[in-house]
Amino acid sequence: MGGIMEETSVISDAQAALYQRQGFLTLEGICPPEEIELIRTTLLDLFKNRTGYDEGAQYDFVSRDDPSKPAKFPSMHDPRHYAPALLKTRYHQHALALARQLLGEDAALYGEHALLKPGLTGPETPWHQDEAFRSPDFEYKELSIWLALQPVTEENGCMQFIPGSNKYEVLEHRSPGGDKSLHPLECCADFPRELAVPAPLQAGDATVHHMRTLHYTAPNTSPAPRLAYILIFNTPPVYKPGRREFPWLEGRWTDSQTRRKQWHKRGGLAIEVMRRLPSARLTSPRWMAWATIRAVNKVLRGKRQPASGGEAPPKEVA
Ligand SMILES: O=C(O)CCC(=O)C(=O)O
Question: What residue numbers bound the domain in which 59 lies?
């Protein structure tokens, strides 16, 4: 795949057409070399200090949270809230330009996710479609940009994709082992796993994938940890209730959601609103409509917790 083009057109028309066809793309050098170490050390420090744990921003991606033990698969959403310098990187600029090229001018950052897969013990991330984590009551345009912060191969858990699965409906998913307190979802429908395409990358390269593209990462059998920084972009989701059901979301409730809820009650809600306000698109009717429906759904959902099915932060959820 070709390198990153400057500013407005981040990828060529041929690359964009390939993305639309196969549902993913590999991008060389989307992160400038001088920023790789900065992003890497910023995220590793956040993990080391368990920053945001009490707010539900850090959690174990594959097990129940136990603060007395190291997480089996440390995971963090929205690290920019704790390290705002991340937002100032050229990587963020390039990623936004790419998202706008592929999704349209009203695309904006929906969330971030950092995943640290430990060396030798880091488990797989099961096959899934990101849309399976979202509320079934909306129509979406969403993509994720997965940045490698060291070289990645199948051995340490590079992304693997099923080409063309972006054209599938959302397939059936379930919680691993039926445990609805865990973060991952796994796709339990039939799909051609033998078509999986691994996407090895150098540090600073990324993959971009559509929210319906089936993807997976293998256990990390290498001795070193594998760190990825994922940016998720969307356009305002359109409310279309009653079209479909995602029963696998019913009754999902993670330890980090409990911590987040407790933090909100201790005054964290106001902090969260203040954090999100600068990026809220208050002048766009489409974004305002989405924010209002989301807020109403959240209140209704809060009344009947623990349950799920609504919008939640990326991979909090996930
Ligand atoms: O890095 C991983 O292990 C999984 C990432 C993922 O599922 C995603 O970016 O949507």
Answer: 13-303
